[in-house]
Fold:
Amino acid sequence: MKLGVCYYPEHWPEAMWAEDAKRMAEIGIRQVRIGEFAWSRIEPSPGIFEWGWLDRAIETLHQAGLHIVLGTPTATPPKWLIDAHPDVLAVDAHGRPRHFGSRRHYCFSSLTYRAECARIVEVLARRYGNHPAIAAWQTDNEYGCHDTIISYSNAARAGFRTWLAAKYSQIDALNTAWGNVFWSMEYRSFDEIDPPVETVTEANPAHRQDWARFASDEVAAFDRVQTDILRAHSPGRDVLHNYMGMFTAFDHFKLGEQLDVAAWDSYPLGFLEQAWWPEATKERFLRQGHPDFTAFHHDLYRGVGRGRWQVIEQQPGPVNWAPWNPAPLPGMVRAWTWEALAHGAECVSYFRWRQAPFAQEQMHAGLLRPDSVEAEAAGEARQVAAELAAVAGATTTKAPVALLFDYEAIWASQIQPQGKDYRGLELLIHFYSAARRLGLSVDVVHPSAELSGYQLILCPLQIFWPEGLSAKIKASGAVCVLGPRTGSKTDDFQIPANLAPGLAQELIPLVVGRVESLRPGHVEQAGPYKVTRWLEHIQSDLVPEAYTASGHGIWYQTDKVDYLACWPEAELLDAVLRRRCEALGLATLSLPDGLRLRQRGAFMFAINYEAEPLDLCDHILGADSLDYVIGGPDLPAAGVAAWRIN
Amino acid sequence: MKLGVCYYPEHWPEAMWAEDAKRMAEIGIRQVRIGEFAWSRIEPSPGIFEWGWLDRAIETLHQAGLHIVLGTPTATPPKWLIDAHPDVLAVDAHGRPRHFGSRRHYCFSSLTYRAECARIVEVLARRYGNHPAIAAWQTDNEYGCHDTIISYSNAARAGFRTWLAAKYSQIDALNTAWGNVFWSMEYRSFDEIDPPVETVTEANPAHRQDWARFASDEVAAFDRVQTDILRAHSPGRDVLHNYMGMFTAFDHFKLGEQLDVAAWDSYPLGFLEQAWWPEATKERFLRQGHPDFTAFHHDLYRGVGRGRWQVIEQQPGPVNWAPWNPAPLPGMVRAWTWEALAHGAECVSYFRWRQAPFAQEQMHAGLLRPDSVEAEAAGEARQVAAELAAVAGATTTKAPVALLFDYEAIWASQIQPQGKDYRGLELLIHFYSAARRLGLSVDVVHPSAELSGYQLILCPLQIFWPEGLSAKIKASGAVCVLGPRTGSKTDDFQIPANLAPGLAQELIPLVVGRVESLRPGHVEQAGPYKVTRWLEHIQSDLVPEAYTASGHGIWYQTDKVDYLACWPEAELLDAVLRRRCEALGLATLSLPDGLRLRQRGAFMFAINYEAEPLDLCDHILGADSLDYVIGGPDLPAAGVAAWRIN
Amino acid sequence: MKLGVCYYPEHWPEAMWAEDAKRMAEIGIRQVRIGEFAWSRIEPSPGIFEWGWLDRAIETLHQAGLHIVLGTPTATPPKWLIDAHPDVLAVDAHGRPRHFGSRRHYCFSSLTYRAECARIVEVLARRYGNHPAIAAWQTDNEYGCHDTIISYSNAARAGFRTWLAAKYSQIDALNTAWGNVFWSMEYRSFDEIDPPVETVTEANPAHRQDWARFASDEVAAFDRVQTDILRAHSPGRDVLHNYMGMFTAFDHFKLGEQLDVAAWDSYPLGFLEQAWWPEATKERFLRQGHPDFTAFHHDLYRGVGRGRWQVIEQQPGPVNWAPWNPAPLPGMVRAWTWEALAHGAECVSYFRWRQAPFAQEQMHAGLLRPDSVEAEAAGEARQVAAELAAVAGATTTKAPVALLFDYEAIWASQIQPQGKDYRGLELLIHFYSAARRLGLSVDVVHPSAELSGYQLILCPLQIFWPEGLSAKIKASGAVCVLGPRTGSKTDDFQIPANLAPGLAQELIPLVVGRVESLRPGHVEQAGPYKVTRWLEHIQSDLVPEAYTASGHGIWYQTDKVDYLACWPEAELLDAVLRRRCEALGLATLSLPDGLRLRQRGAFMFAINYEAEPLDLCDHILGADSLDYVIGGPDLPAAGVAAWRIN
Structure:
């Protein structure tokens, strides 16, 4: 457990560097990330390298005892590179190359750009790969930021054709898999196939799903060029990438397999404003962020990193990029830091050291103001650094609950929502929130993960149901909760021959006869539960646990499996989980939306996300006599408590 | 009166065909439509035809006693055709060709494509034109679907110039007609004229109106290529086209003149979700569709087909293409079927036989589920088939009320709404609803139609008032109700020299001095009536029947004519129609929004669109003692009753 | 003080001209504007001029005693010119040339077009420059209408590079000023720089601000070509341009320096509908327009024209171009005319004489209907003409209050709103309304204006704080009210080294530590005041006059200066201004939103914008015994009163 910061020595006079490094260390910072946007300073003209400044910057930080994460600068190819190789540019859905002048203007499929990246990464890795201060490398920056996964370049089209040929071998296999007989969409060769774009009405969903898979694979292939070089020239250093929140356009698990550490960039207030929460929720958590949204991503990236992960960019104050950008509640930066650490982060690193007075992010706060005076977050970071000792040695252990997360299912739900507001990520976090309301710790894992040891497995959005998954779940002995649309598509994006839930019929004997999506405002009442958005009409010999007034079962249960035939509102999810936890002997609480717990090893952490004080005694039996190591039962707004579990 | 279904033998193993045909017949289906998307199976490579499968499919259906409607496959030109002739593609408003990968990607003006269509239609017509099972041909599929009437291709531009030269002869005539002196828009030759697109601000409305007329004419010309070939090679068979609901971008009457039968595709739930109804209406009729919207289209297409029409695609369950896609109420598919038959349909044909498990419409219900089990609608179709005998021999007769419908006026209201929510189609259906609330049957007819025999003629949107129409109306002896904007434009899209209502001043002595459009929420109270959206300031010696608090008359009346100088709310329309019906001796009712009647010959039909039961006795005097042949006075939700009129 | 009208002789048969001119004179009109869209009639083919009709039109108007403002026709280059020189067309953000068919389709940067303009203006000026009827010239028409200031043409790109090279001399100076080290955006030469468009995420704000400055300068350069020619060939005539309301994409003051008179086009109802007012405000002033919006523009253009200005297009009835287009309240056209005259207009000219029956504006009212009958506005104009004598000789004097208006600040607030609803123009008018509610007359001036003589200087949006402005304000002795974000950017669009308010710290000792933007609905209560949208966290030794519940000061005050650290709601603004006015001895009133006063010389005017009557005695002490020259204390809806100030 340590703290870090993101630093841009190239933005400041060299005379300030030593003092900056000293102040970082004084605050308690141990890691510093640099370099990820500095290509034009490292190589100001083609083949002309300026190493002096970077040598000295690294040395200065090293002298202050800081470990360095060095970023490859490939997110920002300079103008001379673009002018020399215009085919590097990403191409939008209308066939127009994106323009230079911000960042991420490259196409992942451009082989020209991959060669340029290999070149710059290799010179960096050769020069600094064995420097004692270099602890890790970050590849590129926030893959997918600004919706950049998809490019409609010639390179992407050629790559897609090659990818399809490798997958299907014969064109007839593709025609059959996609059902191209429909609307005379049959192809005679792979070279006839284009990206699914600018069609008159929607393209074939199987076409779109394969395009999404291809685009995701291109990210991993692009990154692999860099990780191979870094591992060759910088042995013993971690390689990480900084993922973002809410980005689902590529498979983070697949990229994660190539990395040593998953890192992510946590901006709770910006995410709250951008996401789907209703207005009242956005107002309630205006200066705190949504309690479960951030935590969900912590648990996700712990899964992506196979246990090793960090927050490499932590919001320290108002940002510049959301529609509105409020300031965090006093203490909230500390609370966010502790939430991440409670979930097992190796490091929480603030973005950025000093607010820049120029360019696109000049309104983005740092630990220091542009005039070098400490901003509010600096003191909160200092406080966390001082508190770290109290929970030393806490290691993260397996949670009792696993939540299965499959990026392919999110693409499928976007490609074929069937109801306009069927948002896959929302449903996943909706289930996650239900577990967290009960006080449970959760692991977010890929369906291919080892599942033994879990007591409860949540499958909110397992649209594709892999062969073998049913057996693995049975073998785990866990109780399993299946959401709507489970197993509703084959890998070829077809309806299974035995209808949904397809292969998951191995777990529960029912068939989805038909489905309907329901417009906002329409509620189907099912006893005490409300159903919105989605309702399945089930055929089964099972007697439903609840059914709508029109007679449709919405909750089916066997010994080990629950199936929810609807978009469940919170009350239904709570009832399902609470009943199962009671039977499993898992202790549960009834936490208000603003209070969350998370266990890390021998310690339990509690964080108050409300703008008002909370008394833990109102929510946890015996909270007044716990073995507190941080705080106590009276949690102020943004307050943190931690206690040793007996 | 018969039932039908849409079937895609090419989607299923040949081994299933015979059983499918047998089951269709068992349900009571007599007509089957096939072939309209099968080009890539008929001609998998240029000039290489595969007839075997289609020969056998037709034979199999024939053996089961089914009549076939064979579709020309021109809505889905295959990839090889597009690659060989890229000029076939439609071009969007920004000059970009549309891409292959869905359907309707062709440009109506492409002479290359017309030649390709002639080629494929001729080989089809020659092969099957005299087959005893072929009862009819369908040309193409849903002209205009996915907003495909307009294309900005080079072919369209060239065609537009030719069309303009033919219409105006001299360029000065066009300059004068359009008023091009305004803003120096004068042309020196027809070859200087482009489609009205991507101008800095709105293009000249006369330019846009002529562009809309040209585009509409292109559809008829495109279709004519096919109908000429079909009539030449398949004598004695009907030629039809399947129109859609809510599509107004081309003149359906003009195309209809070339057809034997007008068919349309009725999707009440999808239309409800897509149209302008307020949220409460969408919720109320969520699983039933709007009672008047579907019926309006029935009456429209009866007019388009000069009496001969059918529903060739009837929604049988949830669809896939609306923002939300709920399931129909139990019994609703039967009710929809009876509504169509009551309005005079020759056939109601369900789309589709079996739900496809693949491609774009995999979430669209059929009579069978993908696993061949009967879906809900199959039983309802079977019930209708059994009930048909009860109303045998009922023939449709002229209704007492005619509603004039002019596609050109809809384009004009879109080109120059003057108030953002002045929606022509909405106003037409708004008037139609008023007549239906009174229990009246309505014919929807083109202004060129014979009007003798009608007692009441409604003109909600007769923006262009043809010469001779006044005389024809006078000659009919009918009472005539004119809506706002009547006669407000000359054919050249100019304000008439005598101001609005222009030539309709032959019917009523008043002048529209000026008009104003009113923002949503603004209401002008006129005694008991509310005025919204639109208010005209009238000069007339007539004393208005009602006027606003600010003194503007909104309802003027002569012996035979009413003029409404506003967007009338329902109360005003009801008052106008009720007063006139009383004087005419037309019996009226006061039906709630969920109950509708329609006469077919000697039978009256009643349909309950509410989700709750209705008692006819609450709304029709003596309903308990009618001569019921279907149902009775107690109408369950989605219930149908029919009785013989004494 | 006089009245005018806009007339298009080319739209009407020559036989009507003499009668038209006579009727104008009879109504009391003295000025007539003609010619500004007539290029295709003056030069129907390249180099072929048709002068006869224009000679006769001018002569006819002259004979009727009318003074002519002759427009250059450069807003509407004819088709032959576009076809001969396609590079004349403006290019949109996606690189597509705009199409012919409406107006303003040219690019300001096109040197080809500037040459064509010089050609046509010179022949016009040589022919009519010394004609006795020609009183003034109007250059082009409504620069910026339909969002036409920006063009992404090759000519604009080349011009931008030249402009940047002239500004920065060395590319490193630009890189430093823009902070291009951020994201490796550094350039090696000016020829590498493109317009800031189609970047993946936002472009550098400094890049965008310079692009906006360049585009604005291009308008002035384009116009200068014409004004130079006009002054050379038409000595002694005024040159004016007709600005629009709400247009802020170019610097009106800068263009104004080249003009003799600033004219503007006032459409109160269209502006009300298009602007940001809440629904209730739009409903309340539906037929009146917003009382302060129009007046603000009068005061602005008086500043732009250095005292000489007119309304050259006054809305006379419903227009055609707003989403909804209601009619003005009876009397409102007279009231608008008097409001303009009260603010010092030299002329109020109605647009247009007779409503055109054709083309884009056929639904735009005139003084006459298309059938030549007088429309409502004609009588109101006649009434004003008769009333003019009552206030003869009234000259406009300096107001007690100056409001600083800087177009560059508006661009900055659009480029970097930081909160989505931070609308610069809204904030300026929000401050203006506060002064008007107190009954104060206001001058809207550029920050470079002479400030001596003002008692109160309002700076709602002075984001860039010029060197010397603090000293000038101090020297004026006036009290100064600074809005949020004052001085928050250097000219290079950087945060000042001493943080905001930067150079304005010379006026008040405080520092903005950080800022936050607040989503709609979020309110921070500060004693009796509400804060929304924007809140600054201030460091200062000053004790705030008010602070939020969370402890942030929102109002700081010194002897001569107020600083508002938030988006102030009306109550706070009123409190600030009222306290200062009391101390300054400026008499204030508490006017309701619908009542406004304005002084012109020895006369005070009152106008009632409510749809209900008002009694001045309820709002002004002694209103029953004033020396009225128009009207009296009982103001009907749309009523006007004027009295001599004792």
